[in-house]
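The freezer alarm interrupted the setup, so I double-checked each line after restarting. Inputs confirmed:
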Amino acid sequence: EPEVTQTPSHQVTQMGQEVILRCVPISNHLYFYWYRQILGQKVEFLVSFYNNEISEKSEIFDDQFSVERPDGSNFTLKIRSTKLEDSAMYFCATSGQGAFGYTFGSGTRLTVV
Amino acid sequence: ELKVEQNPLFLSMQEGKNYTIYCNYSTTSDRLYWYRQDPGKSLESLFVLLSNGAVKQEGRLMASLDTKARLSTLHITAAVHDLSATYFCAVESGTYKYIFGTGTRLKVLA
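Predicted 3D structure, all chains:
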């Protein structure tokens, strides 16, 4: 079964550093999303991306966050200057044209120290 | 802003018992999804409910959707230990995002 692959699985970074989280979507999927989940809490929408541009973003997705699809395959989430409160599990999700429901990646656990 | 609430938040039940998890949401939506999450793992899709009155069943789990009441239920029949996990409902908000419920942490005791 096709999978959404995320790397790294775990990243530890110092406060103020930039991080890039990577996602390889399922090949024929057109819609891409990032969600985050602070430990033990609910899953929160960050951003959706379609046709090489942001479709919608949440209040969490401020100027410190950016997304891009640099090479037509990877889909990345960049946090420019990490804060302690950015520590969370970040999930990439993708969906296909006319499909219902997402396929979630395995997640990247980001720890900011 | 769409709000999605689940209850209960925590559920500890004996094997063999039945129970229902409720998912209420605040604004109109015709699409609702149920996911399962094991500790430290990703989200696994369980059910996709696309219309009022939709009912889906898989094994010991059955999900239903009442769009008029803005309510979905996830019913567990004769629980087994393997069902221990956190269950999330998610409501589609617009075309491009889901709003997740608060989650129900289920523990099935042998």
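Quick read of the result. The CA atoms of residues 5 and 101 of chain B lie 5 Å apart.
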